[in-house]
Amino acid sequence: MSMITECRIVRDHKTLYRKGFSDTCGPASGFRDKLENCLLGLCKEADIPVPIWLSKNSVELARFGKTSFFAEQFAEDVAFDRFEFKIVEK
After folding, report:
1. How many domains, in total, are found in the chain?
2. What percent of the chain has pLDDT over 90?
């Protein structure tokens, strides 16, 4: 079964970009591989750098099925306030 995720890029409380993504990993792939594939795919499609994953992101994702990455979690400067990532379907 594939994983379906969605991202949203926000600046000043306005959505600049929203996109869904379905992983391309095989059915034998684990949750972590699917999650990583979706995050990397969404970042590539949105043409943004990959954020630094902190322990708070793991906690939020486990608790709420979504997490937010703020501008300071990117190694490069970004033109938005937050990158939201959520699991739509496992």
Report:
1. 1
2. 80
